[in-house]
Amino acid sequence: MIIVSACLAGIKCRYDGKDNLVPEIQKMVLEGKALPLCPEELGGLPTPRISCEIRKINGRNSVVSEKGEDLTREFQTGVDKVAKIAQILDCKTAILKSRSPSCGSDQIYDGSFSGKLIPGKGLCASALKEQGVQLFNEENFLKEKHKY
Ligand code: SF4
């Protein structure tokens, strides 16, 4: 089973209540080939919700909102659920929304809320990678999609 960021399948779970629909990814879900999950909603956060970015605090990746609240615990709760589901399903591949503090697999925002991107992974992408899951974002997946 392939795990996909739920927003890529057209589910309106983004922080601003919108989706990031990629029709090819939604089709995989409708065909039963992929499971859509949103780690932030699984962590108990509401939709819409406040925008968050990852910031290094005391050498640790923390998730802070643009108002300065530390929401690392909520984000981590969702990550743990996605990681467990991936383990149960023996998931080998995930297609995750780029640049998200949860799902970003190659670039994330730098924590300053200024729109600056840096190399790095969101918390969920890091956890899945540690479990040996191969990560794609929606852009590089579309180039490789003939394999799926
Ligand atoms: Fe999409 Fe992931 Fe953000 Fe949920 S946490 S809205 S699945 S990018």
Structure, explained:
With 148 residues, the chain is α/β, with parallel strands linked by helices. Helices cover 30% and strands 23% of the residues. It contains 5 helices and 8 strands. It has helices at 23-30, 39-42, 72-88, 123-130, 138-144; strands spanning 2-5, 34-37, 52-57, 60-65, 93-96, 107-109, 117-119, 134-137. A 4-stranded parallel beta sheet has the order 2-1-5-8, sandwiched between helices. Strand 3 (52-57) and strand 4 form a beta hairpin. Helix 3 runs parallel beside helix 4 (123-130). The chain is globular and about 40 Å long. The N and C termini lie close together (11 Å). The mean pLDDT is 96. Bound molecules: iron/sulfur cluster (SF4). Residues 5-7, 13-14, 38-40, 97, 100, 102-103 line the site of iron/sulfur cluster. Iron/sulfur cluster binds at residues 5-7, 13-14, 38-40, 97, 100, 102-103.
Mind sketching the topology for me?
Blueprint: E1 2-5, H1 23-30, E2 34-37, H2 39-42, E3 52-57, E4 60-65, H3 72-88, E5 93-96, E6 107-109, E7 117-119, H4 123-130, E8 134-137, H5 138-144
Parallel strand pairs: 1-2, 1-5, 5-8
Antiparallel strand pairs: 3-4, 6-7
Helix pairs in contact: 3-4
